[in-house]
Amino acid sequence: MTLKKFLLTGGTTFVSKYTAEYFVKKGYDVTVLNRGSRPQVSGVTHINCDRTQLGDLLRGKHFDAILDITAYTEEHVRTLVDSGVCFEDYIFISSSAVYPETNAQPFTEEQDCGRNSIWGDYGTNKLQAEEYLRENVPNAYMLRPPYFYGKYENLYREGFVFDCAMRDRPFYLPGDGSMKLQFFHVRDLCRFVEILLEKHPERKVFNVGNPETVTVKEWAELCYRIAGKTPRFVSVDRSVFQRNYFCFHDYEYVLDVSRQSALMPDTMPLEQGLREEFEWFRDNPDSVYRRNPYMEYIDSNL
Known about the structure:
Elements: E1 5-9, H1 14-25, E2 29-34, E3 45-48, E4 62-68, H2 74-81, E5 86-93, H3 121-136, E6 141-144, E7 147-149, H4 158-166, E8 171-174, E9 180-181, E10 183-185, H5 186-199, E11 205-207, E12 214-215, H6 216-226, E13 233-236, H7 258-263, H8 270-283, H9 294-301
Parallel strand pairs: 1-2, 1-4, 2-3, 4-5, 5-6, 6-11, 7-10, 8-13
Antiparallel strand pairs: 9-12
Helix pairs in contact: 1-5, 2-3
């Protein structure tokens, strides 16, 4: 393999940390751009800077690819593209939040994008970043994932269910638990990035994710089983605000990932990915940066 040089934004939390670690282990020359507030992955070159205040730090530097994982706004991509850095490929991790919830499902890449009332400015900011890249970096790839999961997850999602299981608590489900979720393992993201850089497909926008969805009840059952427990479910009336006691919005959507599947037919089985995440979470219980008070709300109100 010809040694490739990557510039990766972030590199210290969840998706960007996993990605940096993945490509270092694969033998790539990885430079990370972040503010140095957390430990760096072993083997990376670190540029300590706020991405909106780059100055001349990147001017004249050349990378085979920029993996932009932490851009949330047009300003984020604009300051990087205009920094004087030289690159061959640009891969931007966008979001499925660019699709209005009123679109027909499953969401496809051909659909019109716009404001999603659930995600608000997060989605519209991602869309503006996409539009800037489309106009200024026409060879950039834009990936629109559903919910990421895996090792280094720093949001209190699977960790919440694992905690409930390990404490032998009942699990409170929205209604009958039939709401669907779609996931994408961070390793599959890295694998797909490699495929894009190898094959350079003509299409530039890809929905990414597992082809299969799972209900929240099935997902919780799987998390409990991985923790060695059997859940006792309590159904919560749908009139109760869901985010007070549950770790996902009251919002069901499905992405069409057929473009991705044509290039990468297999994705990690959900049970395998959740098992890896559980083993990491069990050994690193303090890694979730914000533990939402779901249990406290349940104990006081449900």
